[in-house]
From TrEMBL, chains A, B:
<dbReference type="InterPro" id="IPR016162">
    <property type="entry name" value="Ald_DH_N"/>
</dbReference>
<keyword id="KW-0963">Cytoplasm</keyword>
<dbReference type="InterPro" id="IPR020593">
    <property type="entry name" value="G-glutamylP_reductase_CS"/>
</dbReference>
<comment type="similarity">
    <text>Belongs to the gamma-glutamyl phosphate reductase family.</text>
</comment>
<dbReference type="InterPro" id="IPR016163">
    <property type="entry name" value="Ald_DH_C"/>
</dbReference>
<dbReference type="InterPro" id="IPR012134">
    <property type="entry name" value="Glu-5-SA_DH"/>
</dbReference>
<keyword id="KW-0521">NADP</keyword>
<feature type="domain" description="Aldehyde dehydrogenase">
    <location>
        <begin position="15"/>
        <end position="283"/>
    </location>
</feature>
<comment type="pathway">
    <text>Amino-acid biosynthesis; L-proline biosynthesis; L-glutamate 5-semialdehyde from L-glutamate: step 2/2.</text>
</comment>
<dbReference type="InterPro" id="IPR016161">
    <property type="entry name" value="Ald_DH/histidinol_DH"/>
</dbReference>
<protein>
    <recommendedName>
        <fullName>Gamma-glutamyl phosphate reductase</fullName>
        <ecNumber>1.2.1.41</ecNumber>
    </recommendedName>
</protein>
<dbReference type="Pfam" id="PF00171">
    <property type="entry name" value="Aldedh"/>
</dbReference>
<dbReference type="InterPro" id="IPR000965">
    <property type="entry name" value="GPR_dom"/>
</dbReference>
<keyword id="KW-0560">Oxidoreductase</keyword>
<comment type="function">
    <text>Catalyzes the NADPH-dependent reduction of L-glutamate 5-phosphate into L-glutamate 5-semialdehyde and phosphate. The product spontaneously undergoes cyclization to form 1-pyrroline-5-carboxylate.</text>
</comment>
<keyword id="KW-0641">Proline biosynthesis</keyword>
<keyword id="KW-0028">Amino-acid biosynthesis</keyword>
Length: 430, 430
């Protein structure tokens, strides 16, 4: 049985999910061919026009958001979810300002990545270009609608958005304003499209739309990302887990270790760069202080036997604790016998997002940087710095934990690819 | 029902395909951690040792190959297939020489792709690293065993090879010699492994071994590549089709157009960079000469009505001809009304591998380079130059037609990724 869904406003018959995605993708790809030809200044101007349109549409957007909030309250959404969904004039101003900030970022497109001339006179260059049509699948936060669209457009990509049902009215209003801004500078509104239905089969159709959608970026909880990774036939730029470790080496400065670990865990416990496992070297002399500082700040510690022996407030860890992303004021802690054991623990349990060492020993630091196989490896710094803004990349579309194409914070460059341009004078191959 | 297969020599019970792949992958990943720490000189020395071992093992390898040839003749393999399978002293010397040539290529690992210092003093660098464990799934040519292993090892990757059943004895002998070369310089032989069974379920287990195999490179015919792309959960670096176009613009030099198109089609008809469709501008005055030159060289032309009108020997094209990779002395040919129509035809039918224009008009050339969405776009050159060696990259692992990670000829750089290294002095995030 094929699921059918409500028709688009301008079509007569209901479309299957596959036909709907194909239609949206064809419109988006046609719009992208226009974006691909724009100059840096034209793309920046389009984003400023979109930001202005978002500000002009404040009344419409907040009214649409109020309908989402009312429906969410009726459905009994949690207070936390309602808070993520809620817009107010300040939050909406922040969304528009963020679009202006993306406009001010440097254009990645057109950069010549390499150039050479062959002995036969062929001139080769590799030139950075947009990827094409990017699909974004996300959950409740309506700001993603404008943030993701801005990053895609800045890098010359069209975007097909599929947001959460709770935010449908808000997303529609934001998308309409953004598209109106593009139209005001003569660009096709199909450069930013929103899937017009909440039918979950459309997500499946997006994930298998190879050749129509060039890359999918899932933004949301673990179950969303896992489903996308399992079902996708389209390349996915995703991060699943942030099981981040901090290893306090024997030669760590005691006060630095205390401050860095406290910040890595407790500054914000809900972000993917938050430390989830602390590894204390058996030769590090101030482990009790580090542990006490975390517990005193309100963190629950779950440790192995040697960690429990350091402080009676440390509870026993279960084996699954070493593979758990708490995203909360909870931390697993193990005592390890030297850097080799720390590297082994990290190799076995890290999600390859961000792992850090605290040490004053340069050789050990270099070894850790070299041997830990994670997107981001840090020495003497809080893992909470794992963020595109902190890395100077501007806004980020996400933090990738895969190994190919882009790793760590993914910003404009991660939304581009390249092509080879070859200029000849009639050369034929012998 | 779970398929079981013959046990490895050193295991007691038969392993399921998944368990076999997991065991091979774990051994390969452990070996890769050793490779990741090697210097440029150490990797080069290891490859020279492998080349020497291949030369020493000439007798064993040719004897194994003779068994494959005999079995193939008994099975009734085609003469073309037997020729691809057959090794002789000269071919084996070529395989060993190719390994030495890869040893001489520059090491891509360790290159600093970008470096910056943040206002808070954090020092960031993006450093090129190996991908990890690469799976190669290929068909009958035994030289792929050594070629692919050499490229993977040069870039610090371990490799898991799954070759065709026709070449199993040859592949085993080549792998054994290569591994012996590695062992002779103290490296783990598991850096190069060959799947020890021809059970097709093992291919399926490789394709879904996410987290164990980091990238799969299929090398072979279209049905192999299509199966890999359809079933893989592991990232795939693949090229499916090479439907390459050459557009002869109104302002093309007539003799250059004749020579370039003749070479693009007829130099070797069976390679992926061979021209499969010729687009002749209606304003180009020498179309008859170009067509006659191809037909006189033995090429069958299938054209639209206007192409047929240019030469009575042009047969009518069916609609599927525009989407066919002939890999033979057959060419589809259409007459188009200007560059816009040529770009539209290419957008509709190209496989995004290599497309070329012949023109003396610089503005049209730039437009073609910019707007054609293919991995390689050429001006005034034969599409048969689409090759890693011709691009100065050294040996290639394949030509990628996807959009992410690597496009066009993929050599050592395409077998690497990067990590972020962050050096601090105790910074915590405000």
């Amino acid at each position: 049985m094929t699921t059918t869904i409500a028709p688009l406003a301008d079509t007569a018959a209901p479309l299957s999910p596959e036909a709907l995605v194909e239609q949206l993708a064809r419109d988006g790809r046609a719009a992208q061919r226009v974006l691909a030809r724009l100059s840096d200044a034209e793309k920046a101007a389009a984003l400023r026009a979109a930001a202005a349109a978002l500000r002009r549409a404040e009344g419409d957007i907040l009214a649409a958001n109020a309908r989402d909030i009312a429906a969410g309250e009726e459905k009994g959404l949690s207070a936390a979810l309602l808070d993520r969904l809620r817009l107010d004039p300040a939050r909406l101003a922040g969304i528009a300002d963020a679009v202006d900030q993306v406009a001010a970022l440097p254009d990645p497109v057109g950069e010549v990545l390499s150039a050479s001339e062959r002995p036969n006179g062929l001139k080769l260059s590799r030139v950075r270009i947009p990827i094409g049509l990017i699909g974004i699948i996300y959950e409740s936060r309506p700001n993603v609608t404008a943030d993701a669209a801005a990053l895609c457009l800045r890098s010359g990509n069209a975007v097909l958005l599929r947001g959460g049902s709770e935010a449908l009215n808000s997303n529609r209003a934001i998308r309409a304003a953004f598209a109106e801004g593009l139209e005001s500078v003569g660009l096709p509104p199909a450069a930013i499209q929103l899937v017009p239905t909440q039918d979950r089969a459309v997500v499946g159709a997006m994930l298998t739309a190879a050749g129509l959608i060039d890359m999918i970026v899932p933004r949301g909880g673990k179950s969303l990302v896992a489903r996308v990774q399992a079902d996708a036939r389209v390349p996915v730029l995703a991060h699943l887990d942030g099981i981040c470790h901090t290893y306090v080496h024997a030669a760590a400065d005691a006060e630095m270790a205390r401050q860095v670990t406290l910040n890595a865990k407790m500054r914000r416990t809900g972000i993917c760069g938050a430390m989830e496992t602390l590894l204390l070297d058996t030769q590090f002399p101030a482990s009790e202080t580090v542990i006490a500082s975390l517990i005193d700040a309100g963190c629950e510690l779950r440790g192995d036997a040697r960690a429990q022996a350091l402080d009676p407030r440390v509870r026993p860890a279960a084996s699954e604790d070493w593979d758990t992303e708490y995203l909360d004021a909870v931390l697993s802690v193990a005592v390890v016998d030297g850097v080799e054991a720390a590297l082994e623990h990290i190799a076995a349990h890290s999600s390859h997002h961000t792992d850090a060492i605290v040490t004053d020993d340069a050789e050990t630091a270099d070894r850790f940087l070299s041997e830990v196989d994670s997107a981001i490896v840090m020495v003497n710094a809080s893992s909470q710095f794992a963020d595109g803004g902190e890395f100077g990349l501007g806004a980020e579309i996400g933090i990738a934990t895969g190994r190919l194409h882009a790793r760590g914070p993914v910003a404009l460059e991660g939304l581009t690819t390249y092509k080879w341009q070859v200029r000849g004078a009639g050369q034929t191959r012998p």
